[in-house]
Amino acid sequence: xxxxxxxxxxxxxxxxxxxxxxxxxxxxxxxxxxxxxxxxxxxxxxxxxxxxxxxxxxxxxxxxxxxxxxxxxxxxxxxxxxxxxxxxxxxxxxxxxxxxxxxxxxxxxxxxxxxxxxxxxxxxxxxxxxxxxxxxxxxxxxxxxxxxxxxxxxxxxxxxx
Length: 161
Prior knowledge:
It contains five helices and no strands. With 161 residues, it is mainly α. The chain has one domain (17-160). Helix 1 packs antiparallel against helix 2 (45-72), helix 1 packs antiparallel against helix 5 and helix 4 packs antiparallel against helix 5.
């Protein structure tokens, strides 16, 4: 059995069950991200840190599995063959807009996590880096939300319809 051989979609798309799980997991990831944000607002910095480090670990593994799965199936253009929007401007825009947000989010989040782990003491407390952290944290949260929205839209336009 190949560890990276995911069964077909259980949601009826042209993707694998991994992509289905990722789409469904957004119903958990987005609220967890918001809870983490609220934890920081309530000055529960250790809770915020734990959730962010945990989300980063889970999302890193998920993204790696997703990229392996995508490459096994020839990428999004190959997977979208036979769909209602194959070779259309709508599908192409959906793909590139989602890629913009997903890649940008990954860079913002990973860089911010690494720098924050270095710059904040343990346990975390406000410091000179806090203002920068807040700015990029909010930017990362907005980009993550846009990654989720564009990902769901791409799932339907490119892989479901």
